[in-house]
Amino acid sequence: MPEGDTIWRTARRLHEALSGEVLVRSDFRVPKLATVDLSGRHVLEVVSRGKHLLTRFEGGLTLHSHLRMDGAWRIYPAGERPRGGPEHQIRAILATAVRTAVGYRLPVLALLRTADESTVVGHLGPDLLGPDWDPAEALRRLLTDPARPLGEALLDQRNLAGIGNVYKSELCFLLRVSPWLPAGETPSGERLIALARKLLDVNKARVSRVTTADPRGDRPLWVYGRAGRPCLRCGTTVLAGGQGETGRERNTYWCPRCQPGPYPQPPVRPNG
Hints:
The structure is a single chain. The protein is an alpha+beta fold. The chain is 22% helix and 21% strand. The protein has a four-stranded antiparallel β-sheet, covered by helices on one side. A hairpin with a 3-residue loop joins strand 3 (52-57) and strand 4. The protein is elongated.
């Protein structure tokens, strides 16, 4: 599941593959970009901003992409057939004489002026893995609505950019608080922010995330994805349930013993 660490790693791979090179081919398979041709342009850089990817080209153009739940960028040697999914799932191809970047299942793909990037990422809070990281500002934004459930506040990219469902659940577990605890009642906001930064930073170069001290088998994460199984700390059955607005709920995992309430009513499902 793409979160800030995944996007940072994707941006680094794309940057290493494309930056400084001239595009020999571009192919966008979305209606609004169907006639766009970037061939002949130098790729300047690829950067991440929270969960957003920005590929910058000479001439002041930026390709903005977002992976959402199952999008992906894959890199192949020039001339090699893409193997990241069926042909009909390809949304973008950026090819140089050396490598080809292929974007699969990209729900967000837009070309804009580099000077206008703020229109797509200007609303984001401090980026946990970005050069603009500001823990004090992130905490201020997180506590702007003190009555809001902590889990929802952590997912709001306007507060701090880069946290998704995995880190939301793991952070609440590590702090021993319920995801439904009002954000303003968080025992240590400074520790929360520092821990969020640490988790993404240590995992940004890993293919598989690890938040425990034991990456073996099914033990790399404390609670995420463990509904119906014993808590790795106390043995209590881990629970799961939706959190957020009706129709837009996001899965949340927690241990009812290690993380005392409040919890939503009616009771949530124990098996995910």
